[in-house]
Write a structure and sequence with these properties.
Elements lengths: L5 H5 L2 H12 L3 H7 L6 H4 L6 H10 L2 H27 L1 E2 L2 E2 L5 H18 L2 H8 L9 H7 L3 E5 L3 H13 L3 E6 H6 L1 H9 L3 E5 L3 H14 L5 E2 L10 H9 L1 H14 L5 E5 L4 H7 L9 E9 L10 H4 L1 E5 L2 E5 L24 H8 L4 E6 H15 L5 H13 L9 E3 L9 H11 L16
Parallel strand pairs: 3-4, 3-6, 4-5, 7-8, 7-12, 8-11
Antiparallel strand pairs: 1-2, 9-10
The structure holds pyridoxal-5'-phosphate.
């Protein structure tokens, strides 16, 4: 705080921390949100850093609120700092970054500068907001795609989107999928092929497809482009995915204001690698009163190794060239994830979500395969909505969440995809459950169908 005073000296360690946080933060707009007092015309002119701000807060607010505010200031400050460094280093606290060999740095720098240009280009912004339509013919976007789209996909949703974009831009497109995922998501595979894409299989699931897509890109930087649909990979890939998916959060805000006259109270989204959750959460990160809830796949049980609950069970490490939370064994080797929601089957999670968990801005829960499958059927029957099994994890959490909320709470769940692709899986599960068919070994789990 610079100045020393008897007030400062007499304060408890907690209060002194608040003092120094107030003093050190340059984020006046954030503080104004946290402390309406600072928006008061009389107090707004108080310069920061200033001891008077602290004295004002101390006089006006009970201690408990100040201590609660301490955490909020801390969180907001971290978010502001992170926002600043994001476009330079892709760091979210200790997560993220670019763990690549030097030969790739130039290429990623070029991508970053093109991305930054797009983000500041009003024409790009207008057209991307306009239903996120790809801008055919525009030099900058074409730069990214003008070679060959190489895309890894799990459930195939991102693959279908990429195939559609490449079809529109007349680009060659190759989609890489794990052989298990190709079997489980065969309708999306067909769709990609109809859109003109080549679909290549690799042994395994999404993580193996991602590794292969990165390998292909690294092997031919001049002609190939790694198109990240999920918020993983080297910076700026996760940041790009987040920005382009943020339409979900913006639309959520717009519709909430239209329908409810204000913000929602709670946002819920499933978490695979994170693109749909972050797409919705990012817009509301600074709205502290809005709860952000991510739901991971507990698979058959969160206690064994047949789940994809990275945020619940993961530890920090580097995978697919970024630092994040990962499912790993005691030697640091990746543990294969499991979920009936194929798109949730990834052993990591985006650096940004790892960060939001670490600073306590978002909370995370899990739903099992069974809970998701049951909710799928329930929603079809009750609402005539057939959710993707990934989204069904988020919806499954409502059963636990809603009884804890006050009447009239406004909850938005991101239904991240349609469940047509999962019809066969659900049908087989229901047959198993009703005892009409057996899986042959007398235990129906894990549900690798
Ligand atoms: C319908 C659907 N929802 C959610 C996900 C999970 O991915 P993410 O966490 O990146 O949104 C996927 C991934 O393929 C998906 O297909």
């Amino acid at each position: 705080m610079g100045q020393s005073s008897s007030t400062e000296q007499g304060a408890s360690p907690e209060l002194r921390e608040v003092q120094s946080l107030v003093a050190s933060t340059g984020a006046l707009p954030s503080l104004q949100k946290s402390f309406p007092l600072l928006s008061d015309p009389q107090t707004q002119s108080i310069p920061l850093p200033s001891l008077r701000v602290w004295l004002l807060l101390r006089r006006q607010l009970p201690l408990a609120r100040i201590l609660g505010a301490q955490r909020r200031i801390h969180v907001l400050r971290l978010i502001d700092e992170t926002e600043e460094s994001l476009f330079r280093t892709g760091k979210f606290g200790r997560f993220g970054g670019i763990f690549v060999p030097e030969t790739l740095v130039t290429c990623l720098r070029m991508l970053l500068s093109e991305f930054n240009l797009c983000m500041h280009d009003p024409h790009f912004q207008r057209s991307s907001q306009n239903q996120q339509r790809p801008r055919s013919g525009h030099a900058r976007q074409a730069h990214g795609l003008a070679k060959c789209g190489g895309r890894a996909t799990g459930a195939g949703q991102h693959g279908v989107a990429t195939a559609a974009a490449c079809a529109k831009l007349a680009l060659k497109c190759s989609i890489i999928m794990g052989h298990l995922d190709m079997e489980r998501q065969s309708s999306n595979v067909l769709l990609m092929k109809h859109l003109g894409a080549e679909v290549k299989s690799v042994q395994g699931t999404l993580k193996d497809a991602t590794s292969e897509a990165i390998r292909k890109w690294v092997g031919d930087l001049e002609r190939k482009y790694y198109l990240a649909g999920t918020a993983v990979g080297p910076h700026p890939c996760p940041a790009m995915v987040r920005e382009f998916q943020s339409i979900i959060g913006k639309e959520t805000r717009r519709q909430s204001i239209q329908k409810w006259g204000g913000k929602p109270d709670v946002l819920v989204a499933c978490v695979g690698t994170d693109s749909n959750a972050l797409g919705m959460f990012h817009e509301f990160v600074r709205d502290e009163e809005v709860r952000l809830i991510g739901v991971e796949a507990a698979g058959t049980s969160i206690d064994g190794e047949t789940h994809s609950a990275t945020l619940a069970k993961g530890e920090i490490g580097v995978y697919h060239v970024a630092m994040t939370l990962l499912l790993q064994d005691h030697e640091g080797q990746i543990v294969g994830p499991h979920s009936v929601g194929v798109g949730l089957e990834y052993p990591g999670v985006s650096p940004e979500l790892s960060f939001l968990r670490e600073i306590g801005r978002a909370e995370f829960h899990t739903a099992t395969d069974e809970e998701a499958l049951d909710v799928y059927a329930l929603l079809c029957r009750l609402e005539d909505i057939c959710p993707a099994l990934e989204a069904a994890h988020a919806l499954a959490h409502l059963g636990k969440l809603c009884p804890t909320l006050p009447d009239g709470a406004k909850v938005v769940v991101n239904c991240s995809g349609h469940g047509d692709k999962d019809i066969e899986t659900v049908f087989k599960y229901q047959q198993l459950k009703s005892g009409k068919v057996s899986d042959g070994n007398n235990h129906p789990k894990p549900l690798q169908m």
